[in-house]
Every structure is written in structure tokens, then in C-alpha cells.
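Notebook entry, cofactor series.
This is the third protein in the set we're modelling with a bound small molecule. For this one the ligand is magnesium ion. I'm keeping the input format identical across the series so the outputs can be compared line by line later. Sequence and SMILES below, as received.
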Amino acid sequence: MTTQEVHRAGFLTLAGRTNVGKSTLLNRLIGHKVAIVSPKPQTTRRRIVGIRTDPDAQLIVIDAPGFHQAQHLLNRRMLDTAHRCLAEGEVIALVVEAGRKLAPEDRDPLQRVLALKRPTVIVINKVDRVARQLLLPQIDELQRLAPNTEIVPLSALTGENVEAFLHVVKGLLPPGPPLMPADEYTDQTERMLAAEIIREKIFHAMRQEIPFSTAVEVEQFVEEEHLIRIEALIIVARESHKGMVIGAGGRQLKTIGTHARLELEELFERKVFLALRVKVEPGWHEDPRKLKELGL
Ligand SMILES: Nc1nc2c(ncn2[C@@H]2O[C@H](COP(=O)(O)OP(=O)(O)O)[C@@H](O)[C@H]2O)c(=O)[nH]1
Ligand SMILES: [Mg+2]
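Returned structure with ligand:
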């Protein structure tokens, strides 16, 4: 940083449809896995904060649930969260997918973001998947809809052009001192991170509606001398789901547990003892009290 340059700090909200790669971009910007990621929509349920501290700027990045059609109370809560996160951003990055014509579901978030009249960047993510010549008409289309907005094509997965995006965002942040301690990179507790990682493994292992109607609650998180003892409850909405999550001979649950444990050990740099139980709570995703308990 030269003496002429001012330090900048502020909130950046990642907005867009579900599954466009917002959480992947968050993790890439922070350099840690802060948010879980899956090929299925609606993986992110809560507001997730990642903090990036550079010599010239501090970005507090807010990852939100994606915009989608709401059916259950859980989905409506997720949409409320998405809107609140949008209101918080001093800079908004609207994320869309490369190589796709703008669907009505894309236009709606775009119009919503533009209506805020806040400093905005449009991110075309997943450029690693498409040929350049497909990108140009998409950039043109977006530029017509948002003539004064910077458009940055990038790949959150490979990191391509993410530096350019950072440069644009930093230029839009307000001047000011850092808002958070330099060594913090998320607002989530270890318990929350553990619950999310277990939930991610369920998203990866299970099909159909099971991931969408499953929650994870960490009941015990005890740090002992050489290991962390974690007991967690997998909450499913139906008796039939319980059987599927456990699987024949307990194999499915074992796979979920093993994958989660290995990642938790890496994250906490400690041996982890992980015990998982499955419990049926019919209609939990429609129950305001249960949702509150789960922080949703
Ligand atoms: N090829 C490719 N896939 C990506 C990229 N970014 C995200 N993905 C994948 O897209 C899916 C959804 O990503 P996620 O971050 O969970 O999307 P979110 O719902 O917007 O948070 C996952 O399977 C990611 O691995 C990218 O830049 N390139
Ligand atoms: Mg997400």
C-alpha cells in the first residue's frame, strides 16, 4: 500500500440464484472452507460470513441462501435471509452462471439488485465450463440490462480471474479502517462448522428430497486432550427417510460419518470422535420453534 492509497473496508454480499456457485466463491475469496458446497440447489440455509483481510482492504463477505421458489416455512425463512443479506451489502456481487441464456429466474434477482442502486458487480461464474465464444453474447446481454455495471467472468472453482474481481470490489468499498480482527475468517462457531460439514456429506450422499428435509444439530462438542468428541443428531422429516439415511446394515450412515470425520479432523487439526444419531421429527421444516432452535 502506498501512502496515497486509502484503506477500505466493508460488506460484500454475494447474491444470485441457488447453485450458481456463491458459496464456492466465498470459500475462494476467504481461502478457507467457510461455507459448504454441493451440486444440489439450496445447500446454504443461513447467512454465512467470511472475512478477508488484506493490507489494503478488509472484505466482510456475506453468503446467502440463493433465490428460489419457496414452499415450506424453511424455504421462506431462507428467502427472508437472502433478502436481509442483500440489504446488508455495501457492495453487491450478483452471481450468474456462464453459458446460460438469462432465464426469468436470473432476471428477477438482477432487477432486484439493480433496484437497490448500490455499487454492484456482476459475476459470470463457471467460465471453466464454457467456450469463450459463448461468453461474449452473455456479456453483451448483461451489459444491455445493466449498462453501468462492471461484469467480471471468473471461475470460483479454479480461481481464474478472481483477483480481477477482488480488485473491482475493493475499488467500490468505502474507505475506512478494518472492522474485524485480522485473524478472524468467519463468524461461525466450531459447533456450527461441524454441523454444516455433516450436512454437506448428507447432501453428497443422499438423493431426492432427503437433503432438503434434513437438518443437523450438534448436541455435544467436547474438546479433550488429544481429541474432539462430537455427538450430532441428524433430523429427518419421515420414518422412511430415517431408514434411507441409515442404509442397509448402517452403511449409508457410516459413509456419511467417515467423510464428515475426516474433514473435521483436517479442519480442527485434531483426532475427532464422531457419533451420529438419526431422529424423525415430522414437519420440523414447518415448525417455527424447531427452526429457531436450529438457528434458521
Ligand atoms: N465448473 C465449475 N463448477 C462450479 C464453479 N463454482 C461452483 N461450482 C459448482 O457448482 C455447484 C454449486 O456450487 P455452490 O457454491 O454450492 O452454489 P451456491 O448454491 O450458489 O452457493 C457445486 O457443485 C460447485 O462445485 C466453477 O467456477 N466452475
Ligand atoms: Mg451456497
